[in-house]
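Hey team,

Filing this mostly as a record. A colleague (T.K.) asked me to run one chain through the structure pipeline before their review meeting, and I want the input and output archived in the tracker in case anyone asks later how it was produced. No errors, nothing strange. Just documentation.

Input sequence:
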Amino acid sequence: MRLSDRLLGIIPFVATIAFVAGIVHIVSVLAMPAVAPQDAMARLSAVAPQGEGVVLLPPATPGREIMPYEDPSVALGFCRFDLARGLYRVRTNIDGEHFIALSFHTRSGRVFYATTDRSALRGKIDVAIVNAAQLEALEANDPEDQPAPELRLLAPAATGFVLVRALAERPNDLPSAEGRVTAVTCAPDRPPQS
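Output structure:
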């Protein structure tokens, strides 16, 4: 048997090994967020206990970032939501001159919606995070021929978090950016008391 025949006989084995290794690599990379012990919610929970409202995260320093790829010129805060406690409302007033962004995440950190100050209506951002039953109840109470008074987000999971980012254009603007972050309200919607 010649050397070229032997090499041709090895090619299917090498191709099979490369194919299986590629599949294992892809599956392990895609499964990593689901099996990682420190998901996004665990990292945020270490900073602040469960509670209502937006919690300001400490400024990013090298080696001590809570969230990956933090920008030191951005004030960052978060709030958690649990739709078992009712629908959640996230509200803030926008001045039109300063950048603010909200991103809505599942427990593992997957983004299901994001918005900025550019999408504010009449100087306000008003978002209701709901599940399917809560959305139906809201829609049943809507007046005919009028748009919904807020943006309604159907959350893909019952728990998650909202990240709030505000840009500090200069280093001495960071306290002002932090104030814009903490001015965002994030709480379960409570029906009015009668």
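Quick notes for T.K.: Residues 1-35 form one domain. The chain has two domains: 1-35, 40-188.
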